Amino acid sequence: MRLRFIIWSLIDAIPFLLAQMSLLFLPFAEFPGWLIYLLMLVLGLFIVIFVGDFKTGIFVTLSGTLIAMVLYFWVSFVILQFWGTFNSVIASNLSLSTGIVNTIFLYIFCLFGNMIAMIFLGFIS
Amino acid sequence: MPVSFTIRNGGDKVLSWKKMLPLIVLMVVLFVNLAISIARFNSYTTFMGDFKANLYVSNITESSSEANITFKIVGQSGMMAKNAYFSEASCLLMIDGHSLGVYQFPTEGILGQFDGKSLVATATFNFSDDYYKEISKFPSTPLKYTLYIITHFLTGNHDTRGTLVFEGTIKEAK
To answer: What is the model's pTM?
Structure first.
């Protein structure tokens, strides 16, 4: 049970981390910002459906988000530090602090997904 | 313990590759977008890091109380940047420890000629009265400048705006 929870959290954390990084590099991205939020809604929906249980799903989403936040900070730190010059980082408005604020919004969209999945699970049971 | 993605919970297959497929698709879509972004970020960084520009004095026309001096910006990009352009430039001039003020290159959105590799822009500024007294020391006294250039880098639907700063001295008119 505990192992399953950890594996699900990691499965949730990887796409969440990719979404956070996409928002960090949004000025250079192909996707518009709203599409990333929409994909997070889909992620929240999938997670609850895979887990098959709303209560576990909501905690998996929470712990996945926390894992992704820690990874996000260090991975983006390394990218901005080693690839970005001071001038370009300033000019492109990439900043870790706005990234953290975006994380909260991404998580809220995951929760919306969770709720839609809850309604869906209610219908099929 | 064998590493497997098939995890059973009391006989029910809870997690399998087939169930994971939509999540894998989601991950791949996000990953491709992120890879494109980082590649563009990298080329932008290279462009901003490698671009170098200098200010030259190309022509001086003097009369008894004023001088018209033509300045020329010559820039060189390290990489071919077809998706970049420059919108504004201004220079802060200093001679003999006195500031002559900030001079803005007149533009209509796009500064000078830029072919992806080299930038050339010229402008003539008028110096009169006290400024003429100061500038008439040139070229015997070198002219110090701080050049600000506004860069634009187009990626996707986004126009990333940045400022580059260059400092130097002009020793002669050529």
So the answer is: 0.77
